[in-house]
Task: inverse folding
């Protein structure tokens, strides 16, 4: 039986040693070829065309009846397929624990993919009673990397760094071609190939009881995080899943502590609010996030005790109920990372096997509850055939493409998430209101009704403060996920009973293919030296809707004459400091460090004066105000969080200059994704057109968390400012947020404009 | 010396030819099928003109590579015959069919037949070009699986160039594995501004392609190439290659600055 070192050429965890994806794949192939406990399957392709793999590990007896095991899972997940109580009990008795372990979605967290080989080898070769129990009572699914492209991107970068001043620094580029670290914010919109492959071919096929998602976190606190999660828990996550996660997490913490592994923290740092990271929470599965402290990629570090810092919910220097055995500091290397990862995953597998009965009972109950109507629950959600937030068919060619694909994009997301959607074939009436043919009807009482509800309702985030009246406790991620609104649709919740209208089921339309180019203006996309994710999302949106782009870097800016190559330059969401200073010295070869500086600002100013258009999104507007000397200011710049706070929410937006080309095809009353954006005040009206404003205070918060609405209310949200012969267009929000906010993407594409209009 | 043919044998042969002609003109059913392999062009002409010849037999006839051109032309102009897709295809596949005849049918062929036609060595150049053009025009509407097979099979550079920049990685993978693809074609695909990132990445990962000089240069020039990859490639390049890349405006500006810095160190 091959050990990892036989194929990799080193032991996983050796200092400064990483494996490329082809080698990882070869290891799993050789293991599957020699072990009767391991099967390997290709489940799709990555963005850059690498194979995505899943290894199925179990006893030979279980491997011989995988179809039946999947069938039992499918039926327990959907009690509508179970005829009687007796049959339900028989299915529960027959089920094995299904545990999915996903490694390495964040490719610079390099321990994970290496640890997958160690775990696979251990399960394939170990004959201890504990491992036999795992194999007999469960099916273990190992996904060695959720982002194989990144395995190679990071290895190439890291290998080039060894022995230099910048050894172990983060790559200068996104480790997912389009979205970098945000690849783990895609588990309900499914915009990326990797997400789709894993949802379609693993989650939806196996419906695992437990999902262990293996990550790394910062280096200066706890060594390992396991659930329980911090509050808030998103209200559509079933309590059985929350309770199950608490149980498994605590069991892991206990096992590692018993084994003398210090520094395990629970109830800290990570909350469970967003479905963007937690597909399984809405699909019957317990998500066990494990986060191990990092080194410098594969280079060891030393953390002096005084550098240990407090994190959300614990203090790293002292013991507490949720951090009983503090890590004292000292050496920390890849070997430690792999060891903590392997120990924690093994503990999850063993606990799941031993708790098979309770896990299966909880899983079955989640399914039963989902299809059983209860007082106070919705009966259905209705999605109208036309997106209310778009108007007519005006606007740039790419904007029209957005509008034309919005409905399919939204309904595809629901259906990919296992939601049954019917399209009414004739008009129908609910509680006196009539709905046209083509309305999409989502019955809430179906297995994954809660997933649909989470995406179709508005979120109310709890008002969490550090102390009463004090600053807000920041969420781990953003606070809203109403995909219907982001897609341009207002879903209607129906509580009344009504006869569901007949009509065909919606099936996946596959609208995510890139399209042919639309002939937009010559677009230059500024590539920040810090590899900002929003640049990646912008590039994805441009590509998705067929707008040709050219990416350029600081050195190109400094070379001048940008007007020769571009009509429009897009600067994605970055802070002013990030844009100006860029990447710090000694964190990359010197040619790749630095930022725009004064010289870059002047070059972009000249581009505008020469008739070009610069579009700045969200944070980069703050840079433009100073760097391009614009007659606006950000009134939120110095406002404390107790006065105004919005860490990512959907707000009301009023398009006010309907004659402006940016406004074409958009409902004057729409929404926008606001996330730590600026609040503009126009200092001088000359040459300034306010295209859109945030809604008045009482209409401002639409979904998610917003404190101090009056600070942002009615403030300009899109301004078009003349400078020289050109324009600067500032967006105070993220019009292409994570590829999801189709409702505002036309504003962005209209700002870019078609070639003909230039 | 061989004996002169016996009078009776000659007469018998003539009689036989007359009998076969009679069958070819008047006959029907299985009798006609027997004549598909006949050695006489006159018999074959008569056979092809006989409305009683069933289509399968006609197709067998058209598969012959020794048919007179006028026979092929005659079948093509017989609307009852050339109305059939299979007959039009058989005509196109026959290298002896004149280009003027074939070209009329090219646009009506299904994609896979077009591909097959474009790969027949002996068919006229202009027919081959037309078939390739028709394939290219359709390629966007072709389902994924069919594009993959096309990528594996086609011998046309124009088609390969298009498939090397296909938006599905599987198609690109198949095209890169096509034995007819050349270094020049791959390097050209990498220079296509529409080349998707997976094309660049797959070429860079391929042991067949990543060692070729022109291709390594094309990878460094490409906007999708990960920086780590570019740095590695640069570290293996000669001074002449570096000097060339440092002056090439297609290379991302920061990589060019890096190359200039590297050259400074090397000297
Ligand atoms: Zn992570």
Result:
């Amino acid at each position: 039986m091959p050990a990892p070192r036989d194929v990799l050429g080193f032991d996983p965890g050796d200092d400064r040693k990483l494996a490329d994806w082809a080698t990882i794949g070869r290891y799993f192939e050789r293991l599957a070829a020699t072990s009767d406990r391991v099967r390997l399957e290709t489940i799709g392709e990555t963005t850059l065309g690498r194979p995505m793999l899943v290894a199925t590990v179990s006893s030979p007896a279980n491997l011989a009846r995988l179809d039946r095991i999947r069938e039992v899972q499918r039926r327990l997940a959907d009690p509508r397929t179970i005829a009687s109580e007796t049959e339900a009990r028989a299915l529960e008795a027959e089920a094995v624990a299904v545990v999915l372990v996903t490694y390495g979605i964040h490719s610079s967290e390099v321990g994970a993919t290496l640890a997958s080989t160690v775990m696979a080898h251990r399960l394939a070769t170990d004959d201890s009673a504990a491992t036999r129990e795992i194999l007999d009572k469960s099916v273990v699914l190992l996904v060695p990397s959720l982002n194989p492209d990144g395995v190679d991107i990071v290895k190439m970068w890291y290998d080039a760094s060894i022995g230099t001043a910048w050894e172990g620094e983060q790559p200068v580029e996104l480790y997912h071609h389009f979205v970098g670290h945000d690849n783990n914010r895609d588990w309900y919109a499914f915009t990326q190939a990797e997400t789709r492959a894993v949802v379609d071919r693993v989650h939806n096929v196996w419906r695992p009881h437990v999902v262990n998602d293996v990550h790394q976190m910062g280096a200066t606190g706890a060594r390992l995080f396991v659930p329980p999660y911090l509050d808030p828990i998103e209200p559509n996550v079933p309590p059985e899943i929350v309770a199950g996660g608490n149980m498994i997490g605590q069991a892991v913490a206990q096992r590692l502590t018993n084994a003398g592994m210090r520094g395990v923290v629970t109830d800290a740092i990570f909350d469970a609010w967003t479905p963007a990271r937690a597909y399984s929470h809405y699909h019957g599965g317990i998500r066990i996030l494990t986060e191990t402290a990092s080194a410098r990629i594969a280079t060891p570090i030393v953390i002096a005790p005084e550098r240990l810092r407090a994190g959300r919910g614990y203090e790293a220097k002292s013991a507490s109920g949720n951090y009983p055995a503090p890590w004292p500091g000292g050496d920390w290397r890849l070997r430690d990372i792999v060891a903590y990862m392997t120990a924690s995953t093994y503990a999850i597998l063993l606990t799941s096997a031993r708790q098979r009965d309770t896990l299966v009972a909880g899983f079955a109950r989640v399914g039963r509850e989902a299809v059983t109507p209860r007082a106070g629950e919705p009966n259905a959600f209705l999605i109208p055939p036309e997106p209310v937030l778009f108007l007519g068919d005006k606007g740039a060619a790419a904007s029209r493409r957005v509008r034309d694909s919005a409905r399919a994009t939204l309904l595809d997301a629901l259906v990919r998430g296992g939601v049954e959607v019917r399209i009414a074939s004739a008009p129908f009436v609910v509680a006196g209101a009539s709905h046209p043919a083509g309305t999409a009807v989502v019955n809430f009482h179906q297995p994954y009704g809660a997933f649909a509800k989470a995406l179709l309702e508005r979120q109310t985030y709890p008002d969490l403060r550090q102390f009463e009246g004090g600053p807000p406790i920041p969420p781990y991620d953003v606070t809203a996920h109403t995909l219907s609104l982001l897609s341009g649709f207002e879903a209607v919740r129906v509580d009344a009973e009504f006869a569901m209208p007949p009509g065909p089921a919606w099936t996946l339309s596959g609208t995510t293919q890139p399209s042919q180019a639309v002939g937009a203006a010559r677009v230059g996309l500024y590539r920040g030296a810090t590899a900002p994710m929003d640049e990646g999302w912008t590039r994805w949106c441009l590509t998705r809707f067929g707008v040709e782009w050219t990416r350029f870097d600081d050195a190109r800016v400094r070379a001048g004459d940008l007007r020769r190559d571009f009509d429009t330059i897009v600067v994605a969401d970055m802070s002013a400091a990030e844009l100006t200073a860029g990447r710090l010295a000694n964190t990359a070869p010197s040619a790749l460090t630095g930022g725009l500086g004064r010289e870059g600002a002047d070059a972009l100013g000249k581009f505008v004066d020469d008739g070009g258009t610069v579009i700045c999104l969200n944070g980069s507007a703050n840079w433009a105000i100073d760097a391009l000397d614009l007659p606006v200011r950000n009134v939120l710049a110095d406002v404390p969080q107790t006065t105004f706070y919005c860490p990512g929410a959907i707000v009301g937006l009023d398009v006010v200059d309907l004659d402006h080309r940016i406004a074409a095809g958009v409902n004057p009353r729409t929404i926008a994704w606001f996330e730590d954006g600026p609040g503009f005040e126009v200092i001088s009206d000359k040459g300034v057109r306010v295209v859109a404003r945030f809604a008045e205070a009482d209409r401002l918060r639409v979904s998610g968390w917003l404190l101090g609405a009056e600070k942002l209310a009615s403030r300009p949200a899109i301004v078009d400012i003349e400078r020289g012969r050109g324009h600067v267009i500032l967006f105070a929000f993220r019009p292409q947020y994570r590829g999801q906010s189709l409702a505002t993407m036309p504003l962005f594409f209209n700002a870019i404009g078609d070639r003909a209009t230039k | 010396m061989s004996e002169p043919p016996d009078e009776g044998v000659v007469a018998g042969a003539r009689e036989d030819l007359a009998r076969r002609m009679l069958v070819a003109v008047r006959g029907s059913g299985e009798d006609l099928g027997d004549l598909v392999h006949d050695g006489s062009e006159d018999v074959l002409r008569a056979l092809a003109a006989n409305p009683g010849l069933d289509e399968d037999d006609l197709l067998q006839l058209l598969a012959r590579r020794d048919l007179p051109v006028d026979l092929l032309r005659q079948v093509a102009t017989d609307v009852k015959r050339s109305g059939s897709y299979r007959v039009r295809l058989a005509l196109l596949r026959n290298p002896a069919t004149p280009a003027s005849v074939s070209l009329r049918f090219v646009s009506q062929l299904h994609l896979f037949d077009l591909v097959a036609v474009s790969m027949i060595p002996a068919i006229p150049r202009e027919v081959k070009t037309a078939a390739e053009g028709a394939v290219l025009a359709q390629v966007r509407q072709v389902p994924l699986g069919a594009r993959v097979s096309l990528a594996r099979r086609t011998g046309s550079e124009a088609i390969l160039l298009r498939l090397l920049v296909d938006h599905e990685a599987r198609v690109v993978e198949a095209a890169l594995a096509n034995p007819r693809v050349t270094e020049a074609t791959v390097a050209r695909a990498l220079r296509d501004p529409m080349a998707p990132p997976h094309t660049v990445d797959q070429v860079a990962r391929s042991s067949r392609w990543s060692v070729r000089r022109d291709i390594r240069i094309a990878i460094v020039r490409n906007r999708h190439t990960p920086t780590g990859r570019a740095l590695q490639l640069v570290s293996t390049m000669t001074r002449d290659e570096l000097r060339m890349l440092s002056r090439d405006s297609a290379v991302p500006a920061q990589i060019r600055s890096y190359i200039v810095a590297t050259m400074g160190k090397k000297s």
About this structure: The longest strand of chain A covers residues 38-45.
